[in-house]
Amino acid sequence: MSNDLEVENLVRDFAAFRAVDNVNFEVKQGSFFSILGPSGCGKTTLLRMIAGFLEPSSGDIRIREKSVLGVPPNLRPVNLIFQHLSLFPMMDVKENISFGLKRRKVSQAEINKQVSTILERVGLPDYASKQINQLSGGQKQRVAIARALILEPSILLLDEPLGALDLKLREQMKIELKKLQQEVGTTFVYITHDQSEALVMSDHVAVMNNGEFEQIDTPKNLYTHPGTGFVADFIGENNSFDATVSSTDPFKVKLDMGHEFFARAMTSLAKGTNCKLYIRPESIVINPQHTENLNKFGVVVKNVLFDGANTKLLAVIENTSREIMAALPQDKRFDHIKPGDKLDVGVYNDSCTCF
Ligand code: ATP
Predict the structure, then answer these.
(1) Which among 266, 234, 262 has a CA at the least distance from the CA of 247?
(2) 136, 271, 291, 292: least surrounded by Cβ within 10 Å?
(3) How far apart are CA 206 and CA 4, in angstroms?
């Protein structure tokens, strides 16, 4: 399948500050691509360049193989949805959605047809004459999407569109947005600092940090095969420890609190190098029955944290003051665990990743 978007060596400077630093990526037609990163990493700057509100300092942006550099926003085949959806409060749903078509001088009969088709698509078939202030947050979201999609953009750009919604609605909208994107088949480029949004909805996610892309991958690979320490830290939960490489074959590291662990080097790390060791909470085995390929250690339970679906164990590694978080499997054998208990735990060697 061909690419809807290609971004090449893109740079944007604000005086001496580089907000976007040599970013490269492509987005396949009909896919859901997210740019995920902490506040201030350059996501909005990148999106504004794609939309045409900001010119790059250097590099190229191609939409359906044509460079759009210098093309004004209204002539680019993209549409942008912001967190504050900027719907027109004085107009009803139909007037909001048909606004762009009217400006394109489309006939009223054609507008009526297209509005009812798109309202059907976004699941609001009977809402044409509703006022904007009569809609819920999720319904407003869908109207904003309908208003953008009716203009048939090649790419829909979404800038944290769920940010203003409450938690429950955000959870629902994540699933709905993904469904909607699959149904309409439009390419979505979505920016967010919320990893769960990016992971749930996207075909591919680019993790951005300090103006650069750290890794572009499927949600699953980002979690299971993070390419950098930043990604390992940023995606999902991870316990991290300062360590030094004590042997390269087999690969072993010495932790800052003295333990030596067999581990997996994710980049080339020479003996004596300082590195970070990451251990996912769910890769910690409580009371392991086998010891093969396992780093074993003792912990003292500090707290049992229950959040409804999951239980986590906050523990201190024995004879140290270092805390470690473990996910408890749903198993009655662990129901009795309480603060103060001493436990044997283990982590498989290849679940200990080092950068
Ligand atoms: P957030 O998630 O908080 O919106 P972001 O990842 O979208 O953050 P940007 O808004 O792209 O980040 O900003 C990236 C960096 O560029 C920030 O440090 C910001 O202060 C800086 N920046 C953005 N616009 C300008 C500007 N017009 N002039 C100077 N610096 C700017």
Answers:
(1) 262
(2) 292
(3) 16
The binding-site residues of ligand 1, defined as CB within 6 angstroms of any ligand atom, are 14, 17, 19, 37, 39-45, 193
CB neighbour class for 50 (10 Å; exposed up to 12, middle 13-18, buried from 19): buried
Query: Cα(44) to centroid of ligand 1, in Å?
Result: 7
For the domain covering 237-354, report its CATH number.
2.40.50.140
CATH number of the 3-232 domain: 3.40.50.300
- CB-based burial of residue 237 (10 Å sphere; 0-12 exposed, 13-18 middle, 19+ buried)? exposed
Question: Of 179, 171, 177, 172, nearest to 190 (Cα)?
Answer: 177
* Tokens 């993904």, residue located: 178
Residue 113's CB is within 10 A of a number of other CB atoms, namely 12
* Structure-token match 């978080």, residue found: 325
Tell me the per-residue pLDDT of 275-309, one tens digit each, with 9 for 90 and over: 999 999 999 999 998 888 999 999 999 999 988 77
Q: Which atom of ligand 1 is nearest to the CA of 193?
A: 2
CA of 56 to the centre of ligand 1 (A): 14
Chain CA centroid to CA 337, Å: 34
The pLDDT of residue 207 is 98
Residues of the chain with pLDDT under 50: none
């603060």: which residue's tokens?
A: 339
DSSP string across 100-136: HHHHTT--HHHHHHHHHHHHHHTT-TT-TT-BGGGS-
| Residue 99 host element (H or E) | helix 93-103
Contacts of residue 118, defined as CB under 8 A and 6 or more positions apart, other chains included, come to 97, 146, 149, 150
DSSP summary character for residue 42: S
- pTM across the whole model: 0.88
Instruction: Find, among 214, 265, 215, 226, the residue nearest to 243 by Cα.
Output: 265
Contact 157, 27 (CB under 8 A): no
